[in-house]
Protein backbone atom coordinates (compact mmCIF):
# COMPACT_ATOMS: atom_id res chain seq x y z
CA UNK A 1 0.00 0.00 0.00
CA UNK A 2 1.18 3.54 -0.77
CA UNK A 3 1.96 5.69 2.27
CA UNK A 4 -0.34 8.43 1.00
CA UNK A 5 -3.30 6.03 0.98
CA UNK A 6 -2.36 4.69 4.39
CA UNK A 7 -2.68 8.20 5.85
CA UNK A 8 -6.12 8.86 4.32
CA UNK A 9 -8.53 10.49 6.78
CA UNK A 10 -5.78 11.33 9.28
CA UNK A 11 -4.64 14.85 10.18
CA UNK A 12 -0.86 14.88 9.84
CA UNK A 13 2.14 17.04 9.01
CA UNK A 14 5.17 15.75 7.10
CA UNK A 15 8.23 17.02 8.96
CA UNK A 16 10.80 15.89 6.41
CA UNK A 17 11.10 14.15 3.03
CA UNK A 18 7.59 15.16 1.98
CA UNK A 19 8.37 14.52 -1.68
CA UNK A 20 8.58 10.75 -1.04
CA UNK A 21 5.17 10.33 0.59
CA UNK A 22 3.26 9.79 -2.66
CA UNK A 23 5.39 6.91 -3.96
CA UNK A 24 6.60 5.08 -0.84
CA UNK A 25 5.24 1.53 -0.44
CA UNK A 26 4.32 0.15 2.99
CA UNK A 27 4.35 -3.54 3.94
CA UNK A 28 3.18 -3.33 7.59
CA UNK A 29 2.41 -0.98 10.47
CA UNK A 30 4.26 -1.68 13.72
CA UNK A 31 4.37 -0.11 17.17
CA UNK A 32 6.94 -2.45 18.75
CA UNK A 33 10.50 -1.53 17.76
CA UNK A 34 11.63 -5.12 18.29
CA UNK A 35 9.35 -6.29 15.47
CA UNK A 36 10.22 -3.53 12.99
CA UNK A 37 11.87 -4.32 9.67
CA UNK A 38 12.38 -2.85 6.22
CA UNK A 39 9.15 -1.74 4.55
CA UNK A 40 7.33 -1.02 7.83
CA UNK A 41 5.87 2.17 9.23
CA UNK A 42 6.92 2.59 12.86
CA UNK A 43 4.36 4.44 15.01
CA UNK A 44 5.81 5.98 18.18
CA UNK A 45 3.35 5.35 21.01
CA UNK A 46 3.90 6.44 24.59
CA UNK A 47 3.09 3.60 26.99
CA UNK A 48 3.11 3.18 30.76
CA UNK A 49 6.78 2.22 30.90
CA UNK A 50 8.24 2.87 27.46
CA UNK A 51 8.00 5.64 24.87
CA UNK A 52 8.29 4.71 21.20
CA UNK A 53 9.99 8.04 20.52
CA UNK A 54 13.06 6.68 22.31
CA UNK A 55 13.51 3.97 19.67
CA UNK A 56 13.58 6.00 16.46
CA UNK A 57 17.22 5.29 15.78
CA UNK A 58 16.86 1.59 16.68
CA UNK A 59 14.25 1.05 13.99
CA UNK A 60 16.14 3.24 11.50
CA UNK A 61 19.10 0.88 11.86
CA UNK A 62 16.70 -1.88 10.74
CA UNK A 63 16.16 0.14 7.54
CA UNK A 64 12.71 1.41 8.53
CA UNK A 65 12.23 4.56 6.44
CA UNK A 66 8.84 5.87 7.68
CA UNK A 67 8.09 6.95 11.25
CA UNK A 68 5.02 8.50 12.83
CA UNK A 69 5.56 10.68 15.89
CA UNK A 70 3.37 12.69 18.25
CA UNK A 71 5.99 15.30 19.04
CA UNK A 72 9.24 16.75 17.85
CA UNK A 73 10.31 18.11 21.23
CA UNK A 74 11.02 16.15 24.43
CA UNK A 75 12.15 17.57 27.77
CA UNK A 76 12.68 20.96 26.16
CA UNK A 77 14.95 19.63 23.45
CA UNK A 78 14.28 19.08 19.76
CA UNK A 79 14.28 15.38 18.91
CA UNK A 80 16.94 14.32 16.47
CA UNK A 81 15.35 12.47 13.55
CA UNK A 82 17.20 10.24 11.07
CA UNK A 83 17.64 12.55 8.08
CA UNK A 84 16.77 9.98 5.43
CA UNK A 85 13.55 8.87 7.13
CA UNK A 86 10.10 10.20 6.26
CA UNK A 87 8.91 11.78 9.50
CA UNK A 88 5.18 12.30 9.98
CA UNK A 89 3.68 14.07 12.99
CA UNK A 90 0.13 13.42 14.24
CA UNK A 91 -1.86 14.76 17.17
CA UNK A 92 -2.54 11.33 18.68
CA UNK A 93 -0.37 8.35 17.72
CA UNK A 94 -2.75 5.72 19.13
CA UNK A 95 -5.63 7.12 17.13
CA UNK A 96 -3.48 7.34 14.01
CA UNK A 97 -2.31 3.74 14.49
CA UNK A 98 -5.93 2.52 14.62
CA UNK A 99 -7.05 4.54 11.58
CA UNK A 100 -3.97 3.54 9.58
CA UNK A 101 -4.66 -0.11 10.45
CA UNK A 102 -8.21 0.16 9.10
CA UNK A 103 -6.87 1.78 5.91
CA UNK A 104 -4.19 -0.89 5.51
CA UNK A 105 -6.68 -3.75 5.62
CA UNK A 106 -9.31 -1.98 3.51
CA UNK A 107 -11.89 -1.38 6.26
CA UNK A 108 -13.12 -4.99 6.47
CA UNK A 109 -15.37 -4.14 9.44
CA UNK A 110 -17.65 -2.21 7.08
CA UNK A 111 -18.69 -5.52 5.49
CA UNK A 112 -19.84 -7.06 8.79
CA UNK A 113 -22.12 -6.31 11.73
CA UNK A 114 -20.12 -5.58 14.90
CA UNK A 115 -21.41 -6.39 18.38
CA UNK A 116 -19.32 -5.03 21.27
CA UNK A 117 -19.60 -6.19 24.87
CA UNK A 118 -18.12 -4.34 27.84
CA UNK A 119 -18.43 -4.77 31.61
CA UNK A 120 -16.50 -6.10 34.57
CA UNK A 121 -17.97 -9.59 34.38
CA UNK A 122 -19.91 -11.61 31.86
CA UNK A 123 -18.28 -10.45 28.61
CA UNK A 124 -16.99 -13.90 27.68
CA UNK A 125 -20.17 -15.73 28.62
CA UNK A 126 -22.33 -13.30 26.65
CA UNK A 127 -20.01 -13.53 23.63
CA UNK A 128 -20.17 -17.35 23.59
CA UNK A 129 -23.95 -17.25 24.00
CA UNK A 130 -24.22 -14.85 21.07
CA UNK A 131 -21.96 -17.00 18.91
CA UNK A 132 -24.19 -20.00 19.66
CA UNK A 133 -27.44 -18.13 19.02
CA UNK A 134 -26.28 -16.50 15.79
CA UNK A 135 -24.93 -19.80 14.46
CA UNK A 136 -28.29 -21.39 15.26
CA UNK A 137 -29.73 -18.90 12.75
CA UNK A 138 -27.28 -20.14 10.08
CA UNK A 139 -25.00 -17.10 10.41
CA UNK A 140 -21.21 -17.32 10.32
CA UNK A 141 -19.73 -15.47 13.28
CA UNK A 142 -16.29 -14.19 14.24
CA UNK A 143 -15.32 -13.70 17.88
CA UNK A 144 -12.61 -11.60 19.54
CA UNK A 145 -12.17 -11.94 23.29
CA UNK A 146 -10.63 -13.56 26.32
CA UNK A 147 -10.93 -17.08 24.90
CA UNK A 148 -9.00 -16.01 21.80
CA UNK A 149 -9.98 -15.15 18.25
CA UNK A 150 -12.44 -17.23 16.22
CA UNK A 151 -12.17 -16.36 12.54
CA UNK A 152 -15.33 -18.20 11.49
CA UNK A 153 -13.58 -21.58 11.20
CA UNK A 154 -10.76 -21.86 13.76
CA UNK A 155 -9.88 -20.64 17.26
CA UNK A 156 -6.58 -18.77 17.52
CA UNK A 157 -4.77 -17.59 20.63
CA UNK A 158 -4.60 -13.92 21.67
CA UNK A 159 -2.70 -12.17 24.45
CA UNK A 160 -5.33 -9.51 25.16
CA UNK A 161 -9.11 -9.47 25.53
CA UNK A 162 -9.11 -6.61 23.01
CA UNK A 163 -6.01 -6.94 20.77
CA UNK A 164 -4.08 -4.00 19.31
CA UNK A 165 -5.71 -2.18 16.38
CA UNK A 166 -3.59 -3.71 13.61
CA UNK A 167 -4.39 -7.23 14.86
CA UNK A 168 -8.09 -6.41 15.15
CA UNK A 169 -8.32 -5.28 11.51
CA UNK A 170 -6.13 -8.15 10.33
CA UNK A 171 -8.57 -10.63 11.82
CA UNK A 172 -11.56 -8.67 10.60
CA UNK A 173 -10.11 -9.20 7.13
CA UNK A 174 -9.79 -12.95 7.73
CA UNK A 175 -13.35 -13.10 9.07
CA UNK A 176 -14.73 -11.21 6.08
CA UNK A 177 -12.88 -13.50 3.67
CA UNK A 178 -14.32 -16.56 5.45
CA UNK A 179 -17.84 -15.27 5.06
CA UNK A 180 -18.57 -13.94 8.55
CA UNK A 181 -21.62 -11.70 8.69
CA UNK A 182 -21.26 -10.88 12.39
CA UNK A 183 -18.36 -10.20 14.73
CA UNK A 184 -18.87 -10.50 18.49
CA UNK A 185 -16.15 -8.60 20.31
CA UNK A 186 -15.29 -8.24 23.98
CA UNK A 187 -14.26 -4.62 24.48
CA UNK A 188 -12.12 -4.02 27.56
CA UNK A 189 -11.83 -0.63 29.23
CA UNK A 190 -8.09 -0.76 28.54
CA UNK A 191 -8.82 -1.39 24.88
CA UNK A 192 -11.02 1.69 24.80
CA UNK A 193 -8.55 3.82 26.78
CA UNK A 194 -5.72 2.86 24.43
CA UNK A 195 -7.94 3.60 21.41
CA UNK A 196 -7.68 0.11 19.93
CA UNK A 197 -11.26 0.38 18.64
CA UNK A 198 -10.93 3.95 17.36
CA UNK A 199 -12.90 4.46 14.14
CA UNK A 200 -15.12 1.37 14.54
CA UNK A 201 -18.90 1.65 14.56
CA UNK A 202 -20.77 -1.10 16.40
CA UNK A 203 -24.28 -2.05 15.43
CA UNK A 204 -24.89 -3.06 19.06
CA UNK A 205 -22.99 -2.29 22.27
CA UNK A 206 -23.71 -4.17 25.51
CA UNK A 207 -22.95 -3.22 29.12
CA UNK A 208 -23.10 -6.13 31.58
CA UNK A 209 -22.12 -4.63 34.97
CA UNK A 210 -19.54 -2.54 36.79
CA UNK A 211 -17.35 -3.60 39.71
CA UNK A 212 -14.04 -2.61 41.23
CA UNK A 213 -11.45 -4.27 39.04
CA UNK A 214 -8.50 -3.17 36.91
CA UNK A 215 -7.81 -0.28 39.28
CA UNK A 216 -4.08 0.24 39.70
CA UNK A 217 -1.02 2.11 38.49
CA UNK A 218 -0.80 0.13 35.22
CA UNK A 219 -4.53 0.11 34.46
CA UNK A 220 -7.07 2.73 35.65
CA UNK A 221 -6.38 5.33 38.32
CA UNK A 222 -9.88 5.14 39.81
CA UNK A 223 -13.29 3.51 39.52
CA UNK A 224 -14.56 6.73 37.94
CA UNK A 225 -11.97 6.50 35.16
CA UNK A 226 -12.74 2.80 34.68
CA UNK A 227 -16.46 3.59 34.33
CA UNK A 228 -15.78 6.54 32.00
CA UNK A 229 -13.84 4.46 29.49
CA UNK A 230 -16.48 1.74 29.46
CA UNK A 231 -19.13 4.35 28.73
CA UNK A 232 -17.24 5.57 25.66
CA UNK A 233 -18.26 2.41 23.79
CA UNK A 234 -21.81 3.83 23.65
CA UNK A 235 -20.58 6.77 21.60
CA UNK A 236 -19.57 4.26 18.91
CA UNK A 237 -22.78 2.26 18.51
CA UNK A 238 -26.17 2.49 16.84
CA UNK A 239 -27.96 0.45 19.53
CA UNK A 240 -27.01 0.32 23.21
CA UNK A 241 -28.09 -2.44 25.60
CA UNK A 242 -27.56 -2.11 29.36
CA UNK A 243 -28.11 -4.14 32.51
CA UNK A 244 -30.70 -1.84 34.05
CA UNK A 245 -30.21 -3.38 37.50
CA UNK A 246 -26.71 -1.93 37.62
CA UNK A 247 -26.60 1.71 38.73
CA UNK A 248 -23.90 2.49 36.18
CA UNK A 249 -26.36 1.93 33.31
CA UNK A 250 -27.66 5.49 33.45
CA UNK A 251 -24.06 6.72 33.20
CA UNK A 252 -23.44 4.51 30.15
CA UNK A 253 -26.42 6.05 28.36
CA UNK A 254 -25.77 9.64 29.48
CA UNK A 255 -25.71 12.04 26.52
CA UNK A 256 -25.57 9.13 24.07
CA UNK A 257 -27.57 9.24 20.85
CA UNK A 258 -27.85 5.48 20.27
CA UNK A 259 -31.15 3.59 20.42
CA UNK A 260 -31.52 2.41 24.02
CA UNK A 261 -32.42 -1.10 25.13
CA UNK A 262 -32.15 -2.80 28.50
CA UNK A 263 -32.66 -5.99 30.49
CA UNK A 264 -33.61 -6.61 34.11
CA UNK A 265 -34.50 -9.29 36.66
CA UNK A 266 -36.40 -6.81 38.83
CA UNK A 267 -40.00 -5.64 38.72
CA UNK A 268 -38.86 -2.06 39.10
CA UNK A 269 -35.70 -0.86 37.37
CA UNK A 270 -33.35 0.98 39.75
CA UNK A 271 -32.66 3.76 37.25
CA UNK A 272 -36.09 3.88 35.56
CA UNK A 273 -36.24 7.68 35.51
CA UNK A 274 -33.30 7.80 33.15
CA UNK A 275 -34.66 4.87 31.12
CA UNK A 276 -38.10 6.09 30.13
CA UNK A 277 -37.33 5.72 26.43
CA UNK A 278 -35.70 2.32 26.85
CA UNK A 279 -37.18 -0.97 25.62
CA UNK A 280 -36.84 -3.54 28.39
CA UNK A 281 -36.44 -7.34 28.40
CA UNK A 282 -37.41 -8.74 31.81
CA UNK A 283 -36.87 -12.16 33.39
CA UNK A 284 -39.12 -13.37 36.19
CA UNK A 285 -39.99 -16.59 38.06
CA UNK A 286 -36.31 -17.39 38.49
CA UNK A 287 -35.70 -20.85 40.00
CA UNK A 288 -32.47 -22.49 41.15
CA UNK A 289 -32.57 -26.23 40.55
CA UNK A 290 -30.15 -29.17 40.79
CA UNK A 291 -30.56 -30.91 37.44
CA UNK A 292 -28.42 -33.17 35.25
CA UNK A 293 -26.09 -33.65 38.22
CA UNK A 294 -25.30 -29.96 38.60
CA UNK A 295 -26.79 -26.63 39.72
CA UNK A 296 -28.94 -25.11 36.96
CA UNK A 297 -31.43 -22.28 36.47
CA UNK A 298 -34.93 -21.69 35.12
CA UNK A 299 -36.57 -18.37 34.34
CA UNK A 300 -39.37 -16.88 32.25
CA UNK A 301 -39.53 -14.17 29.62
CA UNK A 302 -42.95 -13.04 28.44
CA UNK A 303 -44.50 -16.24 29.91
CA UNK A 304 -42.05 -18.44 28.00
CA UNK A 305 -39.85 -20.71 30.17
CA UNK A 306 -36.08 -20.85 29.61
CA UNK A 307 -33.56 -23.28 31.12
CA UNK A 308 -29.80 -22.82 31.62
CA UNK A 309 -27.28 -25.57 32.29
CA UNK A 310 -25.46 -22.84 34.23
CA UNK A 311 -25.94 -21.81 37.86
CA UNK A 312 -27.06 -18.55 39.32
CA UNK A 313 -28.66 -15.19 38.78
CA UNK A 314 -25.61 -13.72 37.05
CA UNK A 315 -26.00 -16.23 34.24
CA UNK A 316 -29.63 -15.20 33.87
CA UNK A 317 -28.34 -11.66 33.33
CA UNK A 318 -25.83 -12.96 30.77
CA UNK A 319 -28.57 -14.83 28.93
CA UNK A 320 -30.80 -11.75 28.94
CA UNK A 321 -27.98 -9.67 27.45
CA UNK A 322 -27.47 -12.17 24.63
CA UNK A 323 -31.19 -12.57 23.97
CA UNK A 324 -31.77 -8.81 23.91
CA UNK A 325 -28.98 -8.44 21.34
CA UNK A 326 -30.71 -11.05 19.20
CA UNK A 327 -34.05 -9.29 19.61
CA UNK A 328 -32.48 -5.94 18.65
CA UNK A 329 -31.25 -7.65 15.46
CA UNK A 330 -34.88 -8.68 14.71
CA UNK A 331 -34.59 -12.38 15.58
CA UNK A 332 -37.38 -14.24 17.42
CA UNK A 333 -35.81 -15.12 20.76
CA UNK A 334 -38.54 -17.59 21.72
CA UNK A 335 -37.29 -19.98 19.03
CA UNK A 336 -33.87 -20.13 20.75
CA UNK A 337 -34.73 -21.77 24.08
CA UNK A 338 -32.92 -25.01 23.33
CA UNK A 339 -29.80 -23.24 22.06
CA UNK A 340 -29.51 -21.00 25.11
CA UNK A 341 -30.01 -23.96 27.46
CA UNK A 342 -27.17 -25.93 25.87
CA UNK A 343 -24.52 -23.21 26.20
CA UNK A 344 -21.47 -24.12 28.29
CA UNK A 345 -18.54 -21.71 28.46
CA UNK A 346 -14.92 -22.81 28.79
CA UNK A 347 -13.63 -21.74 32.18
CA UNK A 348 -16.77 -19.84 33.19
CA UNK A 349 -18.58 -21.88 35.84
CA UNK A 350 -17.70 -24.82 33.62
CA UNK A 351 -18.96 -28.12 35.01
CA UNK A 352 -16.67 -31.16 34.90
CA UNK A 353 -18.90 -34.23 34.96
CA UNK A 354 -18.28 -37.25 37.18
CA UNK A 355 -20.22 -40.13 38.67
CA UNK A 356 -19.52 -39.22 42.32
CA UNK A 357 -22.42 -36.75 42.63
CA UNK A 358 -19.81 -34.06 43.34
CA UNK A 359 -20.39 -30.86 41.40
CA UNK A 360 -16.98 -29.77 40.09
CA UNK A 361 -16.47 -26.34 38.55
CA UNK A 362 -13.65 -24.48 36.85
CA UNK A 363 -14.13 -20.72 36.94
CA UNK A 364 -12.12 -17.67 35.92
CA UNK A 365 -13.03 -15.74 39.10
CA UNK A 366 -9.87 -13.77 39.77
CA UNK A 367 -11.08 -10.85 41.88
CA UNK A 368 -13.23 -10.42 44.97
CA UNK A 369 -16.34 -9.42 43.06
CA UNK A 370 -16.40 -12.42 40.73
CA UNK A 371 -15.41 -14.87 43.48
CA UNK A 372 -18.17 -13.57 45.77
CA UNK A 373 -20.73 -13.94 43.01
CA UNK A 374 -19.62 -17.48 42.13
CA UNK A 375 -19.59 -18.75 45.73
CA UNK A 376 -22.80 -16.94 46.74
CA UNK A 377 -24.53 -18.45 43.73
CA UNK A 378 -23.44 -21.99 44.56
CA UNK A 379 -24.44 -21.53 48.21
CA UNK A 380 -28.05 -21.09 47.05
CA UNK A 381 -28.11 -24.73 45.93
CA UNK A 382 -27.53 -25.95 49.53
CA UNK A 383 -24.49 -28.14 48.90
CA UNK A 384 -22.87 -30.32 51.53
CA UNK A 385 -19.73 -28.17 51.46
CA UNK A 386 -18.05 -25.77 49.08
CA UNK A 387 -14.38 -26.69 48.71
CA UNK A 388 -12.44 -23.87 47.04
CA UNK A 389 -9.00 -23.90 45.42
CA UNK A 390 -7.61 -20.55 44.33
CA UNK A 391 -4.59 -18.25 44.17
CA UNK A 392 -3.89 -14.74 42.91
CA UNK A 393 -1.79 -13.44 40.05
CA UNK A 394 1.56 -11.79 40.65
CA UNK A 395 2.32 -8.16 39.84
CA UNK A 396 -1.18 -7.15 40.86
CA UNK A 397 -2.54 -5.08 43.75
CA UNK A 398 -2.23 -6.53 47.27
CA UNK A 399 -5.75 -5.44 48.21
CA UNK A 400 -7.16 -7.76 45.50
CA UNK A 401 -5.52 -10.71 47.26
CA UNK A 402 -6.78 -9.73 50.68
CA UNK A 403 -10.29 -9.17 49.31
CA UNK A 404 -10.35 -12.57 47.62
CA UNK A 405 -9.08 -14.16 50.83
CA UNK A 406 -11.81 -12.46 52.82
CA UNK A 407 -14.53 -13.57 50.39
CA UNK A 408 -13.19 -17.14 50.37
CA UNK A 409 -13.18 -17.28 54.16
CA UNK A 410 -16.74 -16.01 54.38
CA UNK A 411 -18.35 -18.16 51.67
CA UNK A 412 -16.36 -21.41 51.29
CA UNK A 413 -16.35 -24.25 53.82
CA UNK A 414 -12.83 -25.41 53.10
CA UNK A 415 -10.21 -23.26 51.33
CA UNK A 416 -6.99 -24.39 49.72
CA UNK A 417 -4.70 -21.49 48.85
CA UNK A 418 -2.42 -22.27 45.92
CA UNK A 419 -0.40 -20.65 43.13
CA UNK A 420 -2.04 -18.90 40.17
CA UNK A 421 0.24 -16.98 37.77
CA UNK A 422 2.93 -15.66 40.13
CA UNK A 423 4.68 -13.89 37.24
CA UNK A 424 7.66 -12.11 38.82
CA UNK A 425 6.51 -12.34 42.45
CA UNK A 426 7.15 -14.93 45.11
CA UNK A 427 4.28 -17.46 45.37
CA UNK A 428 4.86 -17.60 49.13
CA UNK A 429 4.42 -13.82 49.42
CA UNK A 430 1.21 -13.89 47.38
CA UNK A 431 -0.18 -16.73 49.51
CA UNK A 432 0.69 -14.86 52.72
CA UNK A 433 -1.26 -11.83 51.53
CA UNK A 434 -4.27 -14.00 50.64
CA UNK A 435 -4.12 -15.61 54.09
CA UNK A 436 -3.95 -12.16 55.66
CA UNK A 437 -7.50 -11.57 54.44
CA UNK A 438 -8.62 -15.18 54.75
CA UNK A 439 -7.49 -15.77 58.31
CA UNK A 440 -9.81 -13.12 59.68
CA UNK A 441 -12.84 -15.06 58.47
CA UNK A 442 -12.12 -18.78 58.96
CA UNK A 443 -9.76 -21.38 60.36
CA UNK A 444 -10.70 -23.94 57.69
CA UNK A 445 -7.94 -23.43 55.20
CA UNK A 446 -4.62 -24.87 54.12
CA UNK A 447 -1.84 -23.64 51.85
CA UNK A 448 -0.60 -25.97 49.10
CA UNK A 449 1.48 -23.95 46.65
CA UNK A 450 1.84 -26.73 44.06
CA UNK A 451 -1.41 -26.27 42.10
CA UNK A 452 -1.63 -29.91 41.03
CA UNK A 453 -1.40 -31.08 44.63
CA UNK A 454 -3.99 -28.50 45.69
CA UNK A 455 -6.53 -29.73 43.11
CA UNK A 456 -5.90 -33.37 44.05
CA UNK A 457 -6.35 -32.52 47.72
CA UNK A 458 -9.71 -30.81 47.07
CA UNK A 459 -11.06 -33.81 45.19
CA UNK A 460 -9.66 -36.23 47.75
CA UNK A 461 -11.62 -34.68 50.64
CA UNK A 462 -14.81 -34.05 48.61
CA UNK A 463 -17.87 -36.14 49.42
CA UNK A 464 -21.25 -36.67 47.80
CA UNK A 465 -23.25 -33.42 47.39
CA UNK A 466 -20.13 -31.28 47.89
CA UNK A 467 -19.15 -28.65 45.35
CA UNK A 468 -15.50 -28.28 44.32
CA UNK A 469 -14.50 -24.96 42.73
CA UNK A 470 -11.12 -24.46 41.06
CA UNK A 471 -10.95 -20.69 40.59
CA UNK A 472 -8.70 -18.09 39.03
CA UNK A 473 -7.42 -19.51 35.76
CA UNK A 474 -10.53 -20.70 33.96
CA UNK A 475 -9.77 -21.14 30.26
CA UNK A 476 -6.01 -20.59 30.65
CA UNK A 477 -3.87 -23.61 29.79
CA UNK A 478 -0.63 -22.35 31.31
CA UNK A 479 1.01 -21.03 34.45
CA UNK A 480 3.20 -17.94 34.07
CA UNK A 481 6.37 -17.92 36.20
CA UNK A 482 9.25 -15.47 35.73
CA UNK A 483 8.11 -14.55 32.24
CA UNK A 484 7.75 -18.17 31.06
CA UNK A 485 4.39 -19.85 30.39
CA UNK A 486 4.45 -23.48 31.50
CA UNK A 487 1.76 -25.93 30.43
CA UNK A 488 -0.88 -26.33 33.13
CA UNK A 489 -4.57 -26.96 32.58
CA UNK A 490 -7.08 -27.04 35.45
CA UNK A 491 -9.35 -29.21 33.28
CA UNK A 492 -6.73 -31.93 33.03
CA UNK A 493 -5.77 -31.61 36.69
CA UNK A 494 -9.37 -31.96 37.81
CA UNK A 495 -10.06 -34.93 35.54
CA UNK A 496 -6.88 -36.66 36.74
CA UNK A 497 -7.84 -36.01 40.35
CA UNK A 498 -11.31 -37.47 39.81
CA UNK A 499 -9.82 -40.51 38.09
CA UNK A 500 -7.39 -41.03 40.96
CA UNK A 501 -10.26 -40.74 43.47
CA UNK A 502 -12.13 -43.41 41.52
CA UNK A 503 -9.10 -45.71 41.52
CA UNK A 504 -8.49 -45.22 45.25
CA UNK A 505 -12.12 -45.97 46.07
CA UNK A 506 -12.11 -49.06 43.86
CA UNK A 507 -8.93 -50.29 45.55
CA UNK A 508 -10.39 -49.67 49.00
CA UNK A 509 -13.59 -51.47 48.04
CA UNK A 510 -11.59 -54.43 46.72
CA UNK A 511 -9.61 -54.58 49.95
CA UNK A 512 -12.84 -54.54 51.98
CA UNK A 513 -14.23 -57.38 49.91
CA UNK A 514 -11.07 -59.42 50.33
CA UNK A 515 -11.00 -58.72 54.08
CA UNK A 516 -14.64 -59.78 54.43
CA UNK A 517 -13.97 -62.93 52.43
CA UNK A 518 -10.99 -63.81 54.64
CA UNK A 519 -13.03 -63.31 57.79
CA UNK A 520 -15.79 -65.56 56.50
CA UNK A 521 -13.26 -68.30 55.75
Please describe what this structure looks like:
This protein has 521 residues and is of the alpha/beta class. Helices cover 32% and strands 24% of the residues. It has three domains: 3-103, 3-Layer(aba) Sandwich (Udp-n-acetylmuramoylalanyl-d-glutamate--2,6- Diaminopimelate Ligase, Chain: A, domain 1); 105-341, UDP-N-acetylmuramoyl-L-alanine:D-glutamate ligase; 350-504, Protein-Tyrosine Phosphatase, Chain A (Alpha-Beta Complex). The strands form six sheets. It has a nine-stranded mixed sheet with strand order 11-10-9-12-8-13-14-15-16, with helices on both faces. β3, α2 (56-60) and β4 form a beta-alpha-beta unit.
CATH superfamily of the largest domain: Mur-like, catalytic domain
List segments where confidence is low: pLDDT < 50 over at least 5 consecutive residues.
none
Q: Roughly how much helix do the residues carry, as a percent range?
A: 25-40%
User: How many separate domains make up the residues?
Assistant: 3
Mean of residue pLDDT values: 92
The backbone outline, from C-alpha atoms, is globular
Give me the secondary-structure category. alpha/beta
What is the number of strand segments? 27
CATH architecture descriptor name of the largest domain: 3-Layer(aba) Sandwich
Work out the strand percent. Answer: 15-25%
* Strand ordering within the main sheet: 11-10-9-12-8-13-14-15-16
CA(first)-CA(last) distance? 89 Å
Q: How does the major sheet shape up?
A: 9 strands, mixed
What's the Cα radius of gyration? 26 Å
Q: Name the CATH class of the largest domain.
A: Alpha Beta
Number of continuous helical runs: 15
**CATH fold-level assignment of the largest domain:** UDP-N-acetylmuramoyl-L-alanine:D-glutamate ligase
Amino acid sequence: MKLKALLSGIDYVVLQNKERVEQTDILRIVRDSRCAKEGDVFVCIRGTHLDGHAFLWDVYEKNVQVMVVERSVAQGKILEFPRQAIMIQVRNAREAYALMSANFWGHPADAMTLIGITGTKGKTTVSVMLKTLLESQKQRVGVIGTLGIYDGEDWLSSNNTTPDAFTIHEYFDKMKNKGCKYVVMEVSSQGIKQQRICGLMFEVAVFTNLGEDHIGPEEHHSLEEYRYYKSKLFAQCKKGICNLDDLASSYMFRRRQCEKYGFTCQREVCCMKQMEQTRILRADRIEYVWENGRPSTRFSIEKETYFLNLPGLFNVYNALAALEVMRSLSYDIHTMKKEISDVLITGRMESISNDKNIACYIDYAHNGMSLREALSTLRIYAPGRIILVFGCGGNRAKNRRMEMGKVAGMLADHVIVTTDNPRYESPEKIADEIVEGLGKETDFYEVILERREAVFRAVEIAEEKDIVVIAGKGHERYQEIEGVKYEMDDHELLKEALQKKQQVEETEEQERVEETTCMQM
